[in-house]
Inverse folding.
């Protein structure tokens, strides 16, 4: 079985769906999953409830920094691989309160590595050789690009600019060190901005869709010209499956959508899609809700991924264009109001008040 940390979050939850659908499309018996998740504001068991209900997936609520809990999960369930998604993931939250980011992303990853190392070192030889620790990281560790710079490659020097990206960079370095020092069989993937179903509505794309549907302002930071490389989440999940199967130990692989788009263009694309699929009652375009607000401190200008290594060595490439992915995403949010209701918790409302009150 696989141990998935953070499997009740956005990408981890999509990975659980992808894992079982992939096995079924290949006619294979699905390998079970154990999800270890603290269930912070971003963790939502409802995202994976269909798999929890069938018993193919099991959810254990625990903090990855709790070594006793991690040890217990490893020795009880005996995974052949750990896929480590659990993190504090939102840059704006890291600016307002970095402490949780250091706790989970650095101390938590350290705890997980330590327990994984002990567990792995005591496995019988065959299982030991097959074991993998797959660390999910981000392109943000490479810092910010100018328009004329080439995209990030695996050899781009680290230059993290936010408490979030610094904490992810720290976790990447720990993972690397556990390979070089102890021989723990690690793989790391650094991916660009994901989007798709089950995306928590603090991030740009789901926030814009849900605000528009409620006729609320669409808050664009700064001049709206920052660029992100958008990756449909299921393309990312497939990349993880393939790197887990074929990746070279100790290597890092950049995963990108080949979709560099300015924020303002992302927002207007969503608006136009909604104008077609769910026109406003008074017929005015959703774009009239766009409001420029105070910029994010230290806002990285541009991210872009050169995915040639994963294409060449693993044979992966994204299946979705931004046009097809955003169409699926907007339709998913229109069709899944029950899921949206489950995330409209007190914590989410408090966050919106805190982050946007001072920007307008
Ligand atoms: P998310 O915030 O949606 O989910 C994070 C999950 O981790 C939640 O279920 C949460 O409950 C859990 N978690 C948080 N702290 C924990 C702890 N101490 N112990 C156990 N569980 C804990 O994040 P996401 O967007 O799904 O990101 C998943 C991973 O991918 C992260 O490592 C993130 O850095 C990385 N990543 C995300 C993106 C993106 O665009 N979302 C891009 C690049 C990399
Ligand atoms: O690049 C990978 C990273 O992508 C991941 O490591 C992070 O976990 C993930 O959250 C994401 O980080 P970003 O900061 O790029 O994503 P976010 O959705 O917060 O913002 C995307 C862009 O949109 C960014 O330039 C800031 C801008 N923005 C965001 C919000 C929430 C706005 O203009 N308005 C907003 O209200």
């Amino acid at each position: 079985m696989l141990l998935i940390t953070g499997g009740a979050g956005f990408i981890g939850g999509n990975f659980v769906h992808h894992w079982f659908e992939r096995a079924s499309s290949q006619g294979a018996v699905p390998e079970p999953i154990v999800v270890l998740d603290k269930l912070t504001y971003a963790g939502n068991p409802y995202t994976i409830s269909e798999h929890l209900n069938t018993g193919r997936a099991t959810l254990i609520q625990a903090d990855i920094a709790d070594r006793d809990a991690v040890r217990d999960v490893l020795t009880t369930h005996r995974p052949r691989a750990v896929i480590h998604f659990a993190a504090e993931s939102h840059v704006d939250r890291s600016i307002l309160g970095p402490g949780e980011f250091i706790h989970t992303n650095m101390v938590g990853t350290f705890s997980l590595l330590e327990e994984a190392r002990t567990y792995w070192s005591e496995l019988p030889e065959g299982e030991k050789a097959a074991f993998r620790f797959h660390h999910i990281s981000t392109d943000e560790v490479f810092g910010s690009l100018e328009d004329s710079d080439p995209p990030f490659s695996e050899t781009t020097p680290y230059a993290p600019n936010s408490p979030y990206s610094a904490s992810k960079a720290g976790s990447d370095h720990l993972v690397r060190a556990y390979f070089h020092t102890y021989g723990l069989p690690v793989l790391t993937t650094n991916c660009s901005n994901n989007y798709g179903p089950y995306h928590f509505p603090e991030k740009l794309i789901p926030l814009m869709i849900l605000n528009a549907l409620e006729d609320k302002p669409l808050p664009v930071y700064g001049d709206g010209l920052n660029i992100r490389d958008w990756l449909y989440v299921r393309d990312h999940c497939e990349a993880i499956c393939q790197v887990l199967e074929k990746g070279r130990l100790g290597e890092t692989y950049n995963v990108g959508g080949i979709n560099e788009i300015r924020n303002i263009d992302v927002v207007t694309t969503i608006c136009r899609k909604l104008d077609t699929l769910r026109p406003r009652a008074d017929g005015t375009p959703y774009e009239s809700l766009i409001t420029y607000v105070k910029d994010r401190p230290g806002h990285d200008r541009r991210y872009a991924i050169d995915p040639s290594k994963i294409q060449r060595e693993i044979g992966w490439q994204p299946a979705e264009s931004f046009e097809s992915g955003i169409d699926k995403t907007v339709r998913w949010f229109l069709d899944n109001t029950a899921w949206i209701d489950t995330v409209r918790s007190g914590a989410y409302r408090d966050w919106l008040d805190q982050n946007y009150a001072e920007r307008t």
Residues 99-121 form the longest helix (23 residues). The pocket of DAU (ligand 2) is lined by residues 89-91, 138-140, 192-193, 203-204, 207, 219-221, 226, 228, 263, 296, 303 (CB under 6 Å).
